[in-house]
């Protein structure tokens, strides 16, 4: 889900090294990685926009989320916490946001505006510390925080066990389609460390060849 006016995309410097490691250690990765060609994970936009989009996209189709986001993003001159806090609730509802999602986005803007998030410190904080900050915001759960770590902060070793696509992809690629538990998935992913985000991205590609950008 890229922003309506996406900034330049950034790819992780570690990608090539990670791919070499994964292809050496894992027979499935040895097949999946070359099949994907030169595409790789990309980060764009800013932290507030990325998280606001994740809230808008909850529990609706990608197409519906895009339509609502386009209408919502047209309301402020710039998509910043300060400008969102000046919007009228009725206008946000008219753009297609539910009452609950309006509350979530306002809470998100208040967290950014009130300096409750240590955005400048995130590069030096570990993954779990950042997740703890993000899940304190209404409407943001662990899965959303993990997507933020992977797609925005480009953290290399995130394993989002709540992600249905990851579980499905592991089932299809490693267990011939048999049902897979979280512990099965965690065991498969042990060999992926310290590049579990990269392996997860290739598992997603095995199900949906076109990359998604958050």
From TrEMBL:
- Enzyme class, broadest EC rank: hydrolase
Alphabetical list of InterPro entries matching this protein: Alkylbase_DNA_Glycosylase/TA (IPR051912), DNA_glycosylase (IPR011257), HhH-GPD_domain (IPR003265)
Do the record's keywords include DNA repair?
Answer: yes
Pfam families in the cross-refs:
HhH-GPD
Question: From the Swiss-Prot or TrEMBL record, what is one GO molecular function term?
Answer: DNA-7-methylguanine glycosylase activity
Enzyme Commission designation: 3.2.2.21
The record places domain HhH-GPD at 56-208
A cellular component term, taken from the record's GO annotations: cytoplasm
GO BP terms: namely:
base-excision repair, AP site formation; DNA alkylation repair
Which reaction is recorded as catalysed by this protein? Hydrolysis of alkylated DNA, releasing 3-methyladenine, 3-methylguanine, 7-methylguanine and 7-methyladenine
Keywords per UniProt: DNA damage, DNA repair
Q: Which family does it belong to?
A: Belongs to the alkylbase DNA glycosidase AlkA family.
Q: What is this protein called?
A: DNA-3-methyladenine glycosylase II
């Amino acid at each position: 889900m890229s922003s309506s006016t996406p900034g330049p995309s950034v790819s992780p410097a570690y990608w090539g090294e990670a791919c070499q490691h994964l292809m050496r250690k894992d027979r499935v990765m040895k097949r999946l990685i070359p099949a994907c060609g030169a595409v790789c994970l990309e980060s764009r936009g800013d932290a507030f926009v990325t998280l606001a989009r994740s809230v808008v996209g909850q529990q609706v189709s990608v197409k519906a989320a895009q339509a609502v986001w386009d209408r919502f993003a047209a309301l402020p001159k710039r998509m910043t916490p300060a400008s969102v806090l000046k919007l009228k609730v009725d206008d946000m509802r008219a753009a297609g946001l539910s009452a609950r999602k309006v509350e979530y986005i306002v809470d998100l803007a208040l967290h950014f505006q009130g300096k409750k998030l240590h955005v400048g410190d995130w590069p030096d904080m570990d993954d779990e510390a950042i997740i703890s900050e993000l899940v304190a915001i209404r409407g943001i759960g662990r899965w959303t925080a993990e997507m933020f770590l992977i797609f925005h902060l480009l953290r290399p070793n995130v394993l989002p066990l709540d992600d249905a696509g990851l579980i499905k992809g592991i089932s299809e690629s490693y267990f011939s389609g048999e049902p897979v538990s979280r512990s099965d998935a965690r065991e498969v992913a042990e060999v992926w460390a310290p590049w579990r985000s990269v392996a997860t991205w290739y598992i997603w590609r095995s199900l949906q060849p076109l990359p998604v950008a958050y």
